[in-house]
């Protein structure tokens, strides 16, 4: 009978601890390399330090997502790759479980963003490539939105100017491959507002797209959009 009884160590462990195989330290904590199944069905295989995921490891989510990379005290921290259930993927820096630093995100539709991240959002300098058209946005981002000096590169021409809340606004120019450029500005047109009836909830207004106002056509000239300040919206 003694041969089939669980050891004293096994009997003393909580149920969730019995879902772990691997190294432990003198205090019985997960320490070193091991495999674990979490109560929610996720699994982890990799390095531990004093009971916490720390070091290199691979975490498989029950949803089908997968992360492989560095951990620090149970949080993604350092270099790592995250495969999302929709087929998208992020490869780059992590800080305190957030995409932060430099990294590349490949979206489910094939678009890619390569650049700076902060608090899980595109933030700083980065390049976004649209797969279907091949166009590129090269410029600044603020909290996931295009904002600041930027350049949009198309097949046979490009636009240089500034963006505000994801849309071009203010002075800029289009540069064409055949050797000339068109200067102008994007302006936000005012939209006439209708009257509201009592006790009626107004429908949301569709955002007005900025309108390009051409000023002149010239030969190729230098351009420094950093010196320009976007006008008030």
UniProtKB/TrEMBL annotation:
Family annotation (Gene3D superfamilies) = Histone H3 K4-specific methyltransferase SET7/9 N-terminal domain
Compartments where found: Cytoplasm, Cytoskeleton, Flagellum axoneme
Q: What is its main location?
A: cytoplasm
Using the UniProt annotation, give all residue ranges assigned to the region (Disordered): 1-45
Checking Pfam families in the record gives: MORN (PF02493)
Q: What are the entry keywords? A: Cell projection, Cilium, Cytoplasm, Cytoskeleton, Flagellum, Meiosis, Repeat
Basic and acidic residues bias: start-end ranges? 21-32
A single GO cellular-component term from the record reads: motile cilium
Tell me a GO biological process for this protein: meiotic cell cycle
Q: Which InterPro entries match?
A: MORN (IPR003409)
Say what the protein does: Functions as part of axonemal radial spoke complexes that play an important part in the motility of sperm and cilia.
Name used for this protein in its record: Radial spoke head 1 homolog
- Organism, per UniProt? Onychorhynchus coronatus (Royal flycatcher)
Per UniProt, what is the name of the gene that codes for the protein in this document?
Answer: Rsph1
